[in-house]
Amino acid sequence: QTVVTQEPSLTVSPGGTVTLTCASSTGAVTSGYYPNWFQQKPGQAPRALIYSTSNKHSWTPARFSGSLLGGKAALTLSGVQPEDEAEYYCLLYYGGAVVFGGGTKLTVL
Amino acid sequence: QVQLVQSGAEVKKPGASVKVSCKASGYTFTSYGISWVRQAPGQGLEWMGWISAYNGNTNYAQKLQGRVTMTTDTSTSTAYMELRSLRSDDTAVYYCAREYYDSSGYSIDYWGQGTLVTVSS
């Protein structure tokens, strides 16, 4: 049973920078896992932010960026806005099967 | 614009089946796949499986094998997810999402609005 692990919660000040990570129980995350990142606010469907490690969708704000960092996938928010307070989920692709991380609750305080 | 519109909320008894639909518009249906994802109350996202709208190939999450069937109707650009032998822990919001895979990457981009399925006696 493959497990994808994210920080349960993080807190950041408005205007600050924060990095969320996504680790695989199978070992280092590489570009071949095609990491995706999603934002979900209460009562809403998830919204896609990043695909295949670092690619942004047309609607993704410039302050969101994706990368690989220390064997994990990473989502960095630079210049955090109050509206960025949300749950963030990563997804890893395992050759046809997909596993979501448990989510990171990001608080902007 | 791309839209995925799902069917309405359902209440089912344990042991029953549910079939959720997801009607796509705004893109060429057969050029993408559809993933189904569920979210139990207060919990995270769980991938249920995937279907190719091009040829009907499927790949189901291991824990749901034997209970779930995903199909498509290309004449109406609609995807369906049927879950059988429902249990109380199947109570969740069920989402469909458009996905794309090729040798250069994998992407889930557009999501349906979600369908609440409640399993209760």
Automatic annotation (TrEMBL), chain A:
Q: Look up the record and report any one GO term of the cellular component aspect.
A: immunoglobulin complex
| Gene3D superfamilies to which the protein is assigned, alphabetical | Immunoglobulins
Instruction: Supply the PROSITE patterns for this chain.
Output: IG_LIKE
User: What is its quaternary makeup?
Assistant: Immunoglobulins are composed of two identical heavy chains and two identical light chains; disulfide-linked.
Residue ranges annotated for the Ig-like domain, each copy included: 1-90
Write the record's keywords in alphabetical order, separated by commas: Adaptive immunity, Cell membrane, Disulfide bond, Immunity, Immunoglobulin, Immunoglobulin domain, Membrane, Secreted, Signal
Mind listing the GO biological process terms from this record?
adaptive immune response
Q: Where in the cell is it found?
A: Cell membrane; Secreted
What is the name attached to this protein's record?
Answer: IGL c2508_light_IGLV7-43_IGLJ2
Q: Which InterPro entries match?
A: Ig-like_dom (IPR007110), Ig-like_dom_sf (IPR036179), Ig-like_fold (IPR013783), Ig_sub (IPR003599), Ig_V-set (IPR013106), IgV_Light_Chain (IPR050150)
Q: What is its main location?
A: membrane
Looking up SUPFAM superfamilies in the UniProt record yields: Immunoglobulin (SSF48726)
A Pfam family that the UniProt record links to this protein: V-set
